[in-house]
Amino acid sequence: MPHNVLIILTSHSKLGDTGKPTGWYLPELAHPYYVLKGANANLTIASPAGGKAPLDPSSVEAFKEDKECQDFLKEEHLWANTQKLSNFVGKAKDFDALFIPGGHGPMFDLATDETSQRIIQEFYESGKIVSAVCHGPAAFVNVKLSDGSSLINNEPVTAFTNAEEDQAGLTKVMPFLLETQLGKNGAKFEQANPWQEKVVQAGKDGRLITGQNPASARGMAKAVLKALEMNQ
């Protein structure tokens, strides 16, 4: 049977007080999309506000030579009318996994969104896979399980690193540094060299999967598929 995957996109479109736009990052949805669709997965896309989820225009420019990204831009209907995230509270039984793409947007909304945190908790405690790439793991930072423990406590994870944020020139714009905060909340942070692929699989039954950066998005999606097969 095809797997059902809930994709959670950011609704946040402003890059701090810079006056510049942000949102979700093109290859971090495009590359996993083709991996998952290639396995005939059913994808449902939601965001905190519902409706149009903002695509970071800088990612369109940065990946203008990437064929999958350019092909994916023709699928605008996927993010132009996302479902409201709150509709999926209590619906973990209807899915096999959730996935959160990055972009700087999640640092400003999903990191503190209580609905997102509840859904992630429900999925994980229902035996489902929870995954995120780049800044997507910001959504995991404050997730608590039913026993009060942190989802990421003592778990190996990766995400966009402090070095990468510094090289991107956005350290001072961020509400917090993702690598630092994951560590403060108990995660065992792992990383490759800046901009190199890194995927970490951890958690109960290998159901907590994270990718470091845009280069890790495809590999993270492949790890999700493999975990789905193992957990059938």
Structure overview:
- This protein has 232 residues and is α/β, with parallel strands linked by helices.
- The protein is built from 9 helices and 9 strands.
- Strands 3-2-1-4-5-9-8 form a 7-stranded mixed sheet, sandwiched between helices. Strands 6-7 form a two-stranded parallel ribbon.
- Helix 1 links the parallel strand 1 (4-8) and strand 2 (42-47).
- Helix 1 (26-38) runs parallel beside helix 9.
- The radius of gyration is 16 Å and the shape is globular.
Describe this protein with a few key phrases:
9 strands; seven-stranded mixed beta sheet; globular; 15% strand; two-stranded parallel sheet; 232 residues; alpha/beta
Q: What is the CA-atom radius of gyration, in angstroms?
A: 16 Å
The whole-number mean of residue pLDDT values reads 97
Helix count, per DSSP?
9
Structural class label: alpha/beta
C-alpha geometry: globular
**Which stretches of 5+ consecutive residues score pLDDT under 50?**
none
Portion of residues within helices:
25-40%
- Cα(first) to Cα(last) distance is 10 Å
**Largest sheet: spatial strand order:** 3-2-1-4-5-9-8
Run of helices and strands: EHEHHHEEHHEEHHEEEH
- Beta-strand portion reads 5-15%
Major sheet:
7 strands, mixed
Number of DSSP E strands: 9
